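Lecture notes, continued. The same structure-token format from the folding unit now serves as the input rather than the output. Read the line below as a description of shape only.
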């Protein structure tokens, strides 16, 4: 019987228990011996399939080296958990993104500016700065969270495109009338939407380059254009469960089971 480990960081597991349990249940339905394990306390041995929801690309790379099928692949995990690497990928692929700088470099056009952690998630480490002094204070306060300074896009709106196995599952337009961030976890609203052709092309280019199994690819807007904002590796799927009849956890396991059978 093939084995499947579903890896979470301990602090994330409780908040994502539904998704973790759904991954395990579908894996068991497909004949795998599945278990949920905590990063840092992994059992001995080598699973046939490792679903890494802990955002640790080095963990993924290590298991890939010994022949385990890992989701997401290590390179997708690495780029999807570092916004600087995401923008460098976009630059290499010719995909537009908002101008940015690292601390100590010339600021992008502003004010205002967005100051964000390269390694943050869910909008909790994204701040608005109205002056150069405020940019400096925010960057200093973030310390080892690796701040970036970014030009401001249109506030209160973004689009998340969910991809599975290189194809678009669905897209959601997120909006907020009270915050420049539109994250659902921060009170933003969401509705399922069509994917514009320019966004579709950018999604296809990202998927061809880093080949994620399941990811969220986020876009912001400015001057009537879409710009790649980030790639979410261990993407949350609450919007899909609430707004559609899709089962992204089940679909992910089915996709990975098919890859194992090739």
């Amino acid at each position: 019987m093939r084995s499947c480990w579903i890896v979470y960081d301990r602090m994330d597991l409780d908040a994502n228990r539904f998704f973790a349990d759904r991954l395990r249940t579908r894996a068991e339905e497909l004949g795998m011996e599945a278990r949920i394990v905590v990063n840092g306390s992994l059992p001995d041995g080598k699973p046939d399939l490792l679903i890494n929801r802990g955002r640790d690309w080095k963990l993924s790379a290590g298991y890939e080296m010994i022949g385990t099928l890992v989701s997401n692949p290590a390179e997708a995990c690495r780029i999807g958990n570092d916004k600087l690497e995401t923008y460098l990928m976009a630059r290499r692929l010719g995909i537009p993104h908002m101008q940015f700088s690292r601390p100590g470099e010339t600021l992008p056009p502003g004010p205002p500016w967005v100051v964000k952690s390269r390694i943050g998630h869910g909008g909790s480490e994204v701040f608005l700065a109205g002056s150069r002094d405020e940019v400096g204070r925010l960057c200093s306060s973030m310390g080892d969270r690796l701040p970036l300074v970014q030009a401001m896009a249109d506030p209160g709106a973004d689009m998340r495109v969910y991809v599975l196995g290189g194809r678009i599952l669905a897209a959601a337009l997120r909006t907020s009338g009270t915050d420049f961030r539109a994250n659902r976890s921060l009170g933003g609203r969401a509705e399922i939407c069509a994917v514009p052709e320019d966004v579709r092309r950018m999604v296809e280019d990202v998927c061809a380059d880093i080949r994620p199994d399941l990811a969220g690819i986020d876009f912001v807007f400015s001057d009537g254009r879409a710009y790649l904002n980030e790639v979410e590796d261990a993407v949350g799927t609450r919007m899909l469960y609430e707004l559609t009849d899709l089962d992204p956890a089940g679909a992910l396991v089915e996709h990975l089971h098919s890859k194992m059978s090739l």
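Point for the exam: The mean pLDDT is 94.
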